[in-house]
Amino acid sequence: MLTINFHPFQNIETERLLLRRLNNDDAAEVLSLRSNPDIMKYIPRPLAKTIEDALAHIAMIEDKIVDNTGINWGITIKGESKIIGIIGHYKISPENHRAEIGYMSAPEFNGKGYMSEAIKAVVAYGFEQMNLHSIEAIIDPENIASERVLQKNCFVKEAHILENGLWEGKFIDTVIYSLLKRNWKK
Q1: Confidence tier at 67 by pLDDT (50, 70, 90)
Q2: What is the pLDDT of residue 186?
Q3: Taking phi first (over 0 means left), then psi (-120 to 50 degrees means alpha), and beta for anything else, what does residue 84 get?
Q4: What long-range pairs does 50-53 form, CB within 8 A, spacing at least 24?
């Protein structure tokens, strides 16, 4: 079984981005992301409605970091303080050396390669720092943009599971993509 330790917290720097720890000063941007029906369209979670909802989300992320059960970063463009998205290893299965990656970004930053750049960095962190064997992404099959960015980053489709979730009275499908450490290209 893996021993996970996120202390001290490590920021990640890429060519254009700084992935950093979220804090309460990010509440307005978190609310903007998590209250946007277009961003949340493929994420079966309730929309955030208030700044308190955003602060609760930030607190949940922080609790996972403190407990070493998950890690997320706010995505910022270097030199800017406002987050443009969130990315991280949302669920970790230490007994299987596997984690689930999840991400979201504000629509005005889509199509510029930022998410692919962030995914590359978070995958590298997972394999190099956390010593994961595999990383998975669970997506809505209609989320073509997410599917493309995963494929661009060498993730392979493992499964399409029919009607395995119930959300707002409707059964939904999920698709699982994964990347094994041995197939990862730095």
Answers
A1: very high
A2: 74
A3: alpha
A4: 51/27
Cβ contact 181:147 at 8 Å: no
- Per DSSP, what are the bridge partners of residue 99? 92, 135
Q: What tokens appear for 181 in the block? A: 């450490």
**What are the φ/ψ torsions at residue 2 (nearest 5 degrees)?**
-70, 145
Collapsing DSSP to helix, strand or coil, 65 comes out as helix
How many angstroms from the chain centroid is the CA of residue 124? 14
**Dist. CA 143–CA 90, nearest whole Å:** 18
User: How far, rounded to the nearest angstrom, does the alpha carbon of residue 10 sit from its chain's CA centroid?
Assistant: 16
Sheet containing 12-13, strands listed edge to edge, beginning at the edge strand earlier in sequence? 12-13, 17-20, 71-77, 83-93, 98-105, 134-139, 170-180, 156-167
0.70 exceeded by pTM? yes
Instruction: Output the six-digit token pair for 164.
Output: 């395995």
Contact 145, 115 (CB under 8 A): no
Whole-angstrom Cα distance, residue 46 to residue 84? 20
